[in-house]
Amino acid sequence: MATSGLQTGGFVLGLVGLAATIAATxxxxxxxxxxxxxxxxxxxTYKGLWKDCxxxxxxxxxxxxxxxxxxxxxxxxxxxxxxxVGSVLGVAAAVISLFSLKCLKIGSAEESxxxxxxxxxxxxxxxxxxCGIIGASIYANQIVASFRxxxxxxxxxxxxxxxxxxxGMGGMSMATTYTFGPALFVAxxxxxxxxxxxxxxxxxxxxxxxxxxxxxxxVMYKVPAQSRAAxxxxxxxxxxx
Length: 241
Prior knowledge:
Elements: H1 2-26, E1 31-33, E2 44-47, E3 51-55, E4 61-65, H2 74-99, H3 111-152, H4 161-165, E5 178-180, H5 182-212, H6 225-240
Antiparallel strand pairs: 1-2, 1-5, 2-3, 3-4
Helix pairs in contact: 1-2, 1-3, 1-5, 2-3, 3-5
């Protein structure tokens, strides 16, 4: 019963974490403009992995897709890859986890087979969660570095404006101060939930493996009395011969 609960709990947490990871991947507000000190008529901008958007005071929103691969930093491309890989692994793990549930009967699938599928799904959930956490952390580190350099001093360490704009992440200009967007927190939460779900699946595998292993009990064989008597008489005859 406990093994089935762990398996089902890991599956549910995996689905929740997968939904959050996919939502964070497609969201456009990974970084948002720091509006502290801005005037009312200022333009509000926010950036994601695939689009940059601007919102005016009139409420009009315009988004520009981020096409191409060569125009962005390697860390930005790594964040994209990690989130995509995490989403794909999460979907595959959810499918495998569904068919490995003990309450779901599929043909003549043995318990050992379902145990191996549970372990595979758990490992994939855990890797997907790590991809989401690492990807969000890399992006957050770039936001922190940009924020510190933008607000450090008026000369920005001796760099000119052109050099600062070239260090942006995904078109992120360092002349504008950005802060964490909601998508970052969604990615962190989704990755953490996926990781917990994967751990629960791996713990459930140990219980399923113990149940699927046959327990052989030793049985003592007793020789019947007639057989013992016959064996004893034959031995005496051999001695006299």
